[in-house]
Amino acid sequence: MKRASIKDIARIAGVSVATVSYVLNKKEGSRISEATRKKICEIAETINYTPNKIAKSLKTNRSKLLGLILADISNDFYSAIARCIEDEAMKLGYTLLIGSSDEDPEKFKKLTELFSEQQVDGMIVAPVVNSDDAINRLIKEKYPIVTIDRYLKNINIPGVMIDNTRISESVGNYLAGKNFEEAIYVGYDTQLPHLLERQEGFEKGITPEISCKKVLVGLNNIAEEVFSGLESNIDLSKKTALYFSTNKLGTAGLRYFLKSNIKVPEDVSIIAFDETEAYHLFPTEISFVQQPLTEMAKEAVRLMDSQINNYSDNGKKVVFPARLITKRSVRKK
């Protein structure tokens, strides 16, 4: 017979997995009514719920588990920062459970529920569009949570990110100083604030003398839409520079240039966000924006550990600078 789980109790009681976890682990500080607590305990007894041995043996009601929800674990940026976070978490005695939401708010929600069922002490998350409800539920139940790389505009919780506006404005300024006739921003058609900041910063950094275009694509057919957008917007008779706002977009752009026999930097100049192995396969060294992954990971784990132990740093956001690493993909004046 299948052993009863926290998820079973949550389903019967009509509450979230996190609520059940808080009640059964006797955690203080959550806004859960006495009636709900009593109902959950009665259901647990009725269906013969037994906590797993590890959780049962903990005297502090802490699992020393952290949940990490990334937008896309296959992305070099997220896999690299996951490794950094895991290393930092292990130094403090935590074990990491990792999930990938694939930019899907429903999958994001299910991962938060799964991690709650596993009784993680807190979660480090990269929010996706329309993940507000899932995060607000965790906040309501006083669940320790820290955002990494991204944030949501109307939710005030601790987070770690880079100054996307400033670095993108610096990229725009750098290209403006090279006397280009056109600049093309390649980004996503999205409402995620950190990506909107990259677009706004870049446009701010480009001088009025330079024609500035945008190629915005969806998340489902990235390569196909990048190919189509570049085909429609690149005019090889003009001195053109392109800024790819993520490494996936940059990789798709490089594939288009190879397929179309467009030479970098002779025909077009490019700068891409984040370093990735794909850039090293291209004939020309690619200029890119470098994020301080180790520092971001350390701060994310520190903020999480602080919340778990002291419930401090609530709402604190830490913003790191990023660096433009110039290579041979941008032509000289």
Number of helices: 13
The CATH superfamily name of the domain at 164-291 is: Response regulator
What is the class of the domain at 164-291 in the CATH system? Alpha Beta
User: What proportion of the residues form beta strands (DSSP E)?
Assistant: 15-25%
GO molecular function: DNA-binding transcription factor activity; transcription cis-regulatory region binding
Keywords: DNA-binding, Repressor, Transcription, Transcription regulation
Domain HTH lacI-type: 4-60
Protein name: Transcriptional regulator
Task: Note down, in words, how this protein is organized.
Pfam families: LacI, Peripla_BP_3. This protein is an alpha/beta fold. Among the domains are: about 1-60, lambda repressor-like DNA-binding domains (434 Repressor (Amino-terminal Domain), Orthogonal Bundle), CATH 1.10.260; about 165-290, Rossmann fold (3-Layer(aba) Sandwich), CATH 3.40.50.2300. The chain has 13 helices and twelve strands. The chain has helices at about 5-15, 15-25, 35-45, 55, 75-90, 105-115, 130-140, 165-175, 195-205, 220-235, 245-260, 275-280, 295-310; strands at about 65-70, 95-100, 120-125, 145-150, 160, 180-190, 210-215, 240-245, 270-275, 285-290, 315-320, 325. Strands 2-1-3-4-5-11 form a six-stranded parallel beta sheet, sandwiched between helices. Strands 7-6-8-9-10-12 form a six-stranded mixed beta sheet, sandwiched between helices. Helix 5 links the parallel strand 1 and strand 2. The protein is elongated, with a radius of gyration of 23 Å. The relative contact order is 0.12.
